[in-house]
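Hallway conversation turned thread

IA: we were arguing at lunch whether anyone had actually written out Zinc metallopeptidase end to end. Turns out nobody had. So, for the record, here is the sequence (227 residues) and right after it the C-alpha cells. Reply here if something looks off.
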Amino acid sequence: MFFHPMDFLIIIAFGLSLWAQFRVKGTFNRFADVPASSGMTGAEAARRMLDANGLTNVPVEHIPGTLTDHYDPISRVVRLSDPVYMGNSIAAISVACHEVGHAVQHKVSYPMLVARHRIFPIVNLTSGVAPLLLLGGFFFQMTNLLLLGIIFFSAAVAFQLITLPVEFNASSRAKTMMVKMGFIRNYEESGVNKVLGAAALTYVAAALISVLELVKYVMIFNSSNDD
C-alpha cells in the first residue's frame, strides 16, 4: 500500500489522540491535588449518587490502578481506581460521578447506551476479522474481500460514534447531580468541566481516527472499481 492522501489527516488525528491522552492524565493529576469543599471521597460521592437514583443494589468497588474507573453493565458494579475511590479531590468526585452516570443510563435504558450494548457483540466479532479482510483485499486485489472488510470495520466505527453521546450524557448527569447534592460548589464547576472535558476529548479523537480510516478505505475501494 502506498501513502494515501487521507493518511496525512489520520496522522494528525493520531497526534490529537496522543495529546488528548496526555491531557487527561495531566488534568486529572492537577485536580487530584485540589480537595473538594465537601470533603467527600469518590466512593462516598458515588454511593450517595447511586442511592439518590434508586440504585441501592449497585455496589461501589475498589479496583487497582489509575484511571481504570468504569461501570460494569454485566455485573452492575461501579469500579473506582485508587485515587478516585479513596481521594477527596475535585478529580476523584468528578470521575466517580461520571461512572455513576453510566449506571443511571443503564437504569433508565438511555437509548444510545442500549444501542452500544446491542452492537458490542457484533463489534467484538468484526473488529478482529476486519483487518484481515482489508489486508487480504489489498494484497490479493480482491474488491469483494475489501468491501466485506469495510462493512465489518464500519461496525467498529459505529460503536465509536455511539460512544460519544453516551460519554457526554454521563458527564452531564454527573455535573447536574454533583451540584444538586452538594458534592461541589459553583466555583468548583470549572475544575469538574476540565476533568470531564479532557476525558471526553479522548473519545472524540478515537472516533475521528476511525471515521478517517473508514473514509480512506472507501476511497480506495472506489478507486479500485474505477480501475
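OS: looked through it. Helices lie at 5-32, 42-52, 82-85, 90-108, 111-140, 143-180, 189-226.
IA: good, adding that to the notes. The chain has one domain: 5-226.
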